[in-house]
Amino acid sequence: MSHRVNVAILGATGAVGTELLELLESRQFPVANLKLLASPRSAGTTLPFRGENLPVEAVSEDSFQGVDIVLASAGASTSKAWAKTIVESGAVIIDNSSAFRMDSQVPLIVPEINPEAAAQHQGIIANPNCTTILMGMAIFPLHQVQPIKRIVVSTYQSASGAGARAMEELKAQAKAILENQTPSTQAFPYPLAFNLFPHNSPLNEEGYCEEEMKMIRETRKIFNAPQLSITATCVRVPVLRAHSEAVNLEFSRPFAPQQAREILASAPGVKLVEEWQANYFPMPIDATGKDEVFVGRIRQDLSHPCGLELWLCGDQIRKGAALNAVQIAELLIEKNLLKSSTSAVSV
C-alpha cells in the first residue's frame, strides 16, 4: 500500500484501542498522520508508536478535520455522539461498537467473508461482535461449499470481552480467593474467578440475552442469509483473553469431517489444530495474541446424519475486534473506497 492516509483512533487508551495502535505499527499500515483520541480524563497521556510517544487528545468537534479513517472503539454511545461529525468531515468511521451494526445502510464486514459490502458504505462501516467474527471465520468456508441450514452455538467468553478493567478485576478476584478473601465485583455483576455465569447482557422477553441476539442477527446479515436458523447460548468464563465456541452445524446433506478439515486447513485467517492422539485441540492460551482463529475437534454429529461439530478459539481483542477493523481499513485503501457519500446515513 503506497497510498498513505491520516488515521484517528477514538478510544485509544482502551484494550482494543491500544491493540489497534500495535497493529497499525506491526502491519506497517500506511499512516501519514495519527491522532489518538479519548475522553478528557485520558488527555495528556502518551502512547508509543513507531519509536515516538504520541499524545492522547480529548475528542472535540475539530478532532476529525483532515482525517481519512477513524477507528472507533469507545462504546456505542460515543460512536453515536460523534459519527455525524466524523462523516461530515469526510472521514470513514470503522466502528467497533454495536451502534450501527444492524442499520440497513451500514455494511457489517468481515473481510474474509463479505469484502464486497465495503463498496456500499456511506461513511460508516460496522465491525461485528467478537463472537460473531470468530464463528463466521470458522464456518463460512464450509457454508460456501454447502449452505448451512442451522447453527447451534455455545460460547465461552473471556474477561477481555468486557475490556481492560474486567481483565484486571479477574486477576484481583483470583488473588483474593486464593488468599481466602471475599472478591469484589465492579466490571461484572458476579465473581468470575473460579466461576462462570450466563452472559449478563440484558434479556429479551424470549429469554435470549443481547449477546446471543447479536450472534443471531449479525451472522444472518454478514452471510446475507436472513432466514438462517441460529440459536446461541453465551457464557462468561474465567479466562483472561480469547473466546471459545462449541458449534453444531446442520446441512441439507452429510458433510464429511475430513472434507471440512481440508477446507479449513486452507481457509484464510484460520488455523486447524487437531492432535487426536494427544487429545489436543484449540485452547484460549494458544490463541491469545494470535491473529488466526484456531479450529479443531471437527467430528460427525452422532445425533444427526447431516450434522457437524467443531470447536474454536480466537483472540477477542485481535481478530474479534482490532485486527478485523484494521483489515477493513486496509480493504478501503486497496479498493480505493475512502471517498464516501455523506448524505444517506442517518446518525
UniProtKB/TrEMBL annotation:
<feature type="binding site">
    <location>
        <begin position="160"/>
        <end position="161"/>
    </location>
    <ligand>
        <name>NADP(+)</name>
    </ligand>
</feature>
<dbReference type="InterPro" id="IPR036291">
    <property type="entry name" value="NAD(P)-bd_dom_sf"/>
</dbReference>
<dbReference type="GO" id="GO:0019877">
    <property type="term" value="P:diaminopimelate biosynthetic process"/>
</dbReference>
<keyword id="KW-0560">Oxidoreductase</keyword>
<dbReference type="GO" id="GO:0050661">
    <property type="term" value="F:NADP binding"/>
</dbReference>
<dbReference type="GO" id="GO:0009097">
    <property type="term" value="P:isoleucine biosynthetic process"/>
</dbReference>
<comment type="subunit">
    <text>Homodimer.</text>
</comment>
<keyword id="KW-0791">Threonine biosynthesis</keyword>
<protein>
    <recommendedName>
        <fullName>Aspartate-semialdehyde dehydrogenase</fullName>
        <ecNumber>1.2.1.11</ecNumber>
    </recommendedName>
</protein>
<dbReference type="GO" id="GO:0009089">
    <property type="term" value="P:lysine biosynthetic process via diaminopimelate"/>
</dbReference>
<feature type="active site" description="Acyl-thioester intermediate">
    <location>
        <position position="130"/>
    </location>
</feature>
<feature type="active site" description="Proton acceptor">
    <location>
        <position position="243"/>
    </location>
</feature>
<keyword id="KW-0521">NADP</keyword>
<feature type="domain" description="Semialdehyde dehydrogenase NAD-binding">
    <location>
        <begin position="6"/>
        <end position="121"/>
    </location>
</feature>
<comment type="similarity">
    <text>Belongs to the aspartate-semialdehyde dehydrogenase family.</text>
</comment>
<keyword id="KW-0028">Amino-acid biosynthesis</keyword>
<comment type="pathway">
    <text>Amino-acid biosynthesis; L-lysine biosynthesis via DAP pathway; (S)-tetrahydrodipicolinate from L-aspartate: step 2/4.</text>
</comment>
<dbReference type="InterPro" id="IPR000534">
    <property type="entry name" value="Semialdehyde_DH_NAD-bd"/>
</dbReference>
<dbReference type="InterPro" id="IPR012080">
    <property type="entry name" value="Asp_semialdehyde_DH"/>
</dbReference>
<dbReference type="InterPro" id="IPR012280">
    <property type="entry name" value="Semialdhyde_DH_dimer_dom"/>
</dbReference>
<feature type="binding site">
    <location>
        <begin position="41"/>
        <end position="42"/>
    </location>
    <ligand>
        <name>NADP(+)</name>
    </ligand>
</feature>
<dbReference type="GO" id="GO:0009088">
    <property type="term" value="P:threonine biosynthetic process"/>
</dbReference>
<dbReference type="GO" id="GO:0051287">
    <property type="term" value="F:NAD binding"/>
</dbReference>
<feature type="binding site">
    <location>
        <position position="210"/>
    </location>
    <ligand>
        <name>substrate</name>
    </ligand>
</feature>
<comment type="pathway">
    <text>Amino-acid biosynthesis; L-methionine biosynthesis via de novo pathway; L-homoserine from L-aspartate: step 2/3.</text>
</comment>
<dbReference type="Pfam" id="PF02774">
    <property type="entry name" value="Semialdhyde_dhC"/>
</dbReference>
<keyword id="KW-0486">Methionine biosynthesis</keyword>
<dbReference type="Pfam" id="PF01118">
    <property type="entry name" value="Semialdhyde_dh"/>
</dbReference>
<feature type="binding site">
    <location>
        <position position="157"/>
    </location>
    <ligand>
        <name>substrate</name>
    </ligand>
</feature>
<feature type="binding site">
    <location>
        <begin position="13"/>
        <end position="16"/>
    </location>
    <ligand>
        <name>NADP(+)</name>
    </ligand>
</feature>
<feature type="binding site">
    <location>
        <position position="236"/>
    </location>
    <ligand>
        <name>substrate</name>
    </ligand>
</feature>
<keyword id="KW-0220">Diaminopimelate biosynthesis</keyword>
<dbReference type="GO" id="GO:0071266">
    <property type="term" value="P:'de novo' L-methionine biosynthetic process"/>
</dbReference>
<feature type="binding site">
    <location>
        <position position="316"/>
    </location>
    <ligand>
        <name>NADP(+)</name>
    </ligand>
</feature>
<feature type="binding site">
    <location>
        <position position="101"/>
    </location>
    <ligand>
        <name>phosphate</name>
    </ligand>
</feature>
<dbReference type="GO" id="GO:0046983">
    <property type="term" value="F:protein dimerization activity"/>
</dbReference>
<dbReference type="GO" id="GO:0004073">
    <property type="term" value="F:aspartate-semialdehyde dehydrogenase activity"/>
</dbReference>
<keyword id="KW-0457">Lysine biosynthesis</keyword>
<dbReference type="InterPro" id="IPR005986">
    <property type="entry name" value="Asp_semialdehyde_DH_beta"/>
</dbReference>
<comment type="function">
    <text>Catalyzes the NADPH-dependent formation of L-aspartate-semialdehyde (L-ASA) by the reductive dephosphorylation of L-aspartyl-4-phosphate.</text>
</comment>
